[in-house]
Specification:
The structure is a single chain. It is globular, with a radius of gyration of 22 Å. The two termini are about 25 Å apart. It has 14 helices and four strands. With about 325 residues, the chain is mainly alpha-helical. Helix 5 runs parallel beside helix 8 and helix 11 runs antiparallel to helix 13. Strands 2-1-4-3 form a four-stranded antiparallel β-sheet. GO terms for molecular function: monoatomic ion transmembrane transporter activity. It is found in: Mitochondrion membrane. InterPro entries: Mtc. It is a multi-pass membrane protein. Pfam families: SFXNs.
Length: about 325
């Protein structure tokens, strides 16, 4: 396949049936360079895509220009509302704006107040990303998002503080061991809070169902079964996402601290720790969201009886969400 295959509106230029294709697609989606797109460039990209849809583009317009225009639009404009997503809450801004929080979560020997602050800030940013990139085809009460936010913050803070107290009270652990274990406390706290956030903020889908479509994109109906599977897959993604980000940096830093470099350049701790955490974040994000296809195929036999009677297809599809 050429680098830029023939352009298809609202489709990915990479094969979404394979993990490699999804990974390349999401690397495009989280590209932070789109954060610096000017209003003029955005307007030109939107106009080019509209012209393509109406069959008005000239013969000199290349597939590369069309794919780049779609990349820019998808990175900035919400597909349902048609409005610009705020910079900190775009998927392309997730790493640049979220790295500060990740570094804060990995600070050595944090006080309880510091721990609470960074867990709160992390879940606040996550809530903003979830809300800004929500499925807006069906109105969801703001109270649902507030409930998810409060639940995520409460669970994150409770788990982090609770584990820290247990570690400090442990009598059989050496001081060095306690410090090492303390570094891994952010992961179970963040992972649990992420799952809580997904379940609470998407509770409306679990009760009302999500849309399922046929292979041509035609709506067949709504399914609670598909909604449960979509939320489950998203929850698994949210557990995997913080694992390398919050587990690998402490392991890497523990090895670096034993080297002569560390004793010779102790002031490098923060910039080195921040660089390692940001790198892990940047690598992990597209991998995590590429684990499952955005549009997942589900056998009709697993769906509700009314959906089985409404189609002759063997499989239907649903949008998993991010």
């Amino acid at each position: 396949m050429s680098v830029y295959p023939p352009f298809v509106l609202d489709k990915s230029r990479f094969d979404q049936s394979t993990f490699n294709g999804r990974l390349r697609h999401f690397i495009d989606i989280v590209d932070p360079r789109t954060l610096f797109t000017s209003n003029q460039r955005l307007e030109a990209s939107v106009k080019l895509l509209e012209d393509f849809k109406e069959g008005k583009i000239g013969p000199n317009v290349t597939n590369k220009e069309l794919w780049e225009a779609q990349k820019i639009k998808q990175a900035i404009i919400h597909p349902d509302t048609g409005k610009k997503v705020p910079l900190p809450f775009r998927m392309s801004g997730y790493v640049p704006f979220g790295s500060v929080t990740v570094v804060g979560l990995l600070l050595p020997n944090p006080s309880f107040s510091q721990m609470i602050f960074w867990q709160w800030l992390n879940q606040s940013h996550n809530a903003g990303v979830n809300y800004a990139n929500r499925n807006a085809t069906k109105p969801t009460p703001t109270s649902k998002f507030i409930l998810g936010y409060v639940g995520a913050v409460t669970s994150a803070v409770s788990i982090a503080v609770g584990l820290s107290k247990l570690i400090k009270k442990a009598q059989n652990l050496k001081p060095v061991t306690k410090i090492l274990i303390q570094r891994f406390v952010p992961f179970p706290a963040v992972a649990s809070a992420n799952v809580c956030n997904v379940i609470l903020m998407r509770n409306n889908e679990l009760s009302e169902g999500i849309e399922v479509v046929d292979k041509d994109g035609n709506s067949v109906g709504t399914s609670v079964v598909a909604a449960k599977q979509a939320v489950f897959e998203t929850a698994l993604t949210r557990i995997f996402l913080p694992a390398p980000i919050l587990v690998l940096p402490p392991i890497i830093m523990s090895f670096i601290e034993k080297t002569s470099f560390w004793s010779n350049y102790p002031r490098m701790r923060m910039p080195l720790s921040a660089s390692i955490a940001t790198l892990c974040f940047a690598v992990t994000l597209p991998v995590a969201i590429a684990l499952f296809p955005q549009y997942t195929k589900i056998p009709v036999t697993k769906l509700e009886k009314e959906l089985q009677e409404a189609t002759t297809d063997s499989h239907l599809y649903y949008n998993k969400g991010l």
